[in-house]
Design a protein that fits this description.
This protein has about 450 residues and is an alpha/beta fold. The chain has three domains: about 1-300, Up-down Bundle (Glutathione S-transferase Yfyf (Class Pi), Chain A, domain 2), CATH 1.20.1050; about 305-390, no CATH class; about 395-450, Arc Repressor Mutant, subunit A (Orthogonal Bundle). The chain has 18 helices and 13 strands. Helix 10 (about 230-240) links the parallel strand 8 and strand 9. Helix 13 (about 320-340) runs antiparallel to helix 14, helix 13 (about 320-340) runs parallel beside helix 16 (about 370-395) and helix 17 crosses helix 18. The protein is globular and about 80 Å long. The relative contact order is 0.09.
Length: about 450
Amino acid sequence: MKYALFLGCTIPARVKQYESASRAVLKALNVGVVDIREFNCCGYPLRNIDFKAFVLLSARNLALAERDDLDIITLCQCCFGSLKKANHLLKEDASLRNEVNSHLEKEGLRYQGGIEVKHLLEVLYHDVGIASLQKELTQMYEGLPIAAHYGCHILRPSQVVQFDDPVSPTIFDQLIEITGAHTIYWPQRLECCGAPLCGINDELSMDLSKKKLDSGRQLGAEYVCVACPYCHLQFDTVQERMFAGKQRSDRLPSILYPQLLGLCMGIDEKALGLEMNRIPLDGIKNFLSSRGCPRVLSEGQPVAQEVYRPLGGLKEERPVVVREAMAQQHWSNEMKVIRSQDPELADKLTRLLEKEALLQGEGNVYHERYSSRQIEISFGKIVQTEAQRARILKALRKGPTSVKKLATTLKLAPTEVLAHIVELRRRNRVGLHHIEERTPTYIALSPGDKG
């Protein structure tokens, strides 16, 4: 098993530990990697500036690997997405392929579409395999909750990257869980890390990161695990800057997947580059134990049981039929509450929910078909949020009430109630009634009223 290792630009310059840890893990697994010195940038920075230049840069890398008859393994998700996109376009478009080859032939290269581009996680999961990975583990984590951050470019567009289900992925969770760690279910897990906005709109970039990190920490994660250099920089270097001067407990340290796996394989910490992470990882060793590794699973067998995770992050084991019925009943009850307070909004949500059949049949704009569980995950949060706001309106119609009292009555966090109040005021559905001993009280408004 041998691949052409494509490092890209960012990893050698800014996240060297990702390279060293990956090389160490792959070597221990007897996966060979070849360094092609002529590799250039994947073209991602030019993707929206000069499309043909982007394709040509990626095509040159593909042709170099094809010359040596090697599939490409990437560590960077941006590089992965760019190379996969170019490979897809060139295979589909003969005119573009001919134009690109007219340039490549000047170097004695030619793109023929004979190789594949794979991400590190893809190689570990599919080519090495779960069972083979488990055989290499010498110690396991015990009681370690991890927030798995998938990243954007490894999942979409799914018909191009073909890595995992883009709405409800599981591969990264399974790879983490073979180490003995368990992945938490957090609503923010598929959201962007904020890195694309870094240097353009730093405030928004850090706000996106903070929401993700706060969500993971509040739901019990000790670390966030990533497999992308940009995501790691955002959660490591940028997070350190965000929380400068604050308590260490406010931070959610980022660990690269090959570092997480490498520790369980008994690989030296220096080879894994643990000391190069800006936010220290020293505490993770406290979760390691050499006491018995779990049984080896057959190829493709999931690590964890099928677990139903209803809205709110609670975990219950439910048969598929039961959980689908529960979801429909849940929506029905919530929609009744919404309609009682805002019939116009209820009509809009009903039209949205009617797209369920379309999404399960034809799919979305990327032609991705949704399962019933994916429909619940996608639409359920919207319905739940609007139902909470409807209950707040219902409570306020009984008389002026403070955020604290609303939170107690509705059994919600005060911060959550306040966020709903802010949105309802923006919609002119709630107004400030009066301030009593520095505590604002609010009242529901009728259409046409001003708050």
